[in-house]
Amino acid sequence: MPKTELKGRIERALEWMELSSRADDLVRNFSGGMKRRLEIARALLHTPRVLFLDEPTLGLDPQTRNRIWERLLELRQEHNMTLFLTTHYMDEAEYCDRIVIIDHGRIIALDTPANLKAQMKGDQVFLSTVDNKKVVLEIEERYGIKAESDRDKVWFQVQDGALFVPKLVRELSVPVLSVSVRQPTLEDVFLKLTGREIRDEEASGQEKLKGTLRRMGRAWR
User: Fold this and answer.
1) DSSP E strand boundaries for 24-113
2) pTM for the full model?
3) What distance in Å separates the CA atoms of residue 214 and residue 171, rounded to the nearest whole number?
4) Distance of alpha carbon 194 from alpha carbon 109, whole angstroms
5) Which pLDDT band holds residue 136 (cuts at 50, 70, 90)?
6) What is the mean pLDDT of residues 162-170?
7) Gyration radius of the chain's alpha carbons
8) d(CA 43, CA 55)
9) Could you count the other beta carbons within 10 Å of the beta carbon of residue 27?
10) Which pLDDT tens digit goes with each residue over 16-73?
11) Per the CB 3.0–4.6 Å rule, which of 89, 139, 194, 213 could disulfide with 147?
């Protein structure tokens, strides 16, 4: 590739990620967000048809995350680029046309964001009362709705939550302290399909290698 063409591509990639003013700076002086944007800029040098992104905004502040996604979506539109993304941020997954949910290395769901959320079959209702355990039993006995609770709140799913809640508040024998209704999110879908327990994950191969090298470095000293 001619040097002039390479230079033009570098300048264009840095401009895409708003790093043009730092083109001559040492990377070691960059913030974490700038380094992440630089990684994406490097991947854009050849204007790929498919851009693979692995946790592209992990650990970044909300402003930087938002700006990176604005640029990525613009690039997708301008260059008909396919974004192939892995993420634990469910709000980022909302940008995708199709989502695959993987649990323990197995695909357990594959669909559009709208269709996945439709699986929840109702709105999410959250209550805070003076006796949450009693409210759970009363909701199940009176309305046949499966409810769950912890020390702070009661939650359940129901169709047309905004219409159901006033009736519920009037008829419960326990005073309601607060109530909220929201439509299901991808995070709700993910928790429903994979469970709510904390996962103890094994370190990746790269993390294990780094640990081994650190131990070897201490031994050599």
Assistant:
1) 50-54, 82-86, 99-103, 106-111
2) 0.66
3) 63
4) 10
5) very high
6) 93
7) 24
8) 14
9) 9
10) 888 888 888 898 888 888 888 888 888 888 888 999 999 888 878 888 888 889 888 9
11) 139
Q: How far apart are CA 93 and CA 87, in angstroms?
A: 7
Amino acid at 9: R
Structural tokens at position 98:
């199709």
* Nearest-angstrom CA–CA distance, 101 and 116: 10
CA dihedral 91, 92, 97, 99 (to 10 degrees): -80
Residue 198 has pLDDT above 60, yes or no: yes
User: In the numeric block, which tokens belong to residue 33?
Assistant: 């967000």
For residue 52 the two structure tokens come to 């693979």
CA 114, CA 118: separation in Å to the nearest integer? Answer: 6
Report how far residue 127's alpha carbon sits from residue 138's, in angstroms, rounded to the nearest whole number. Answer: 13
Local structure of 60: helix, strand or coil: coil
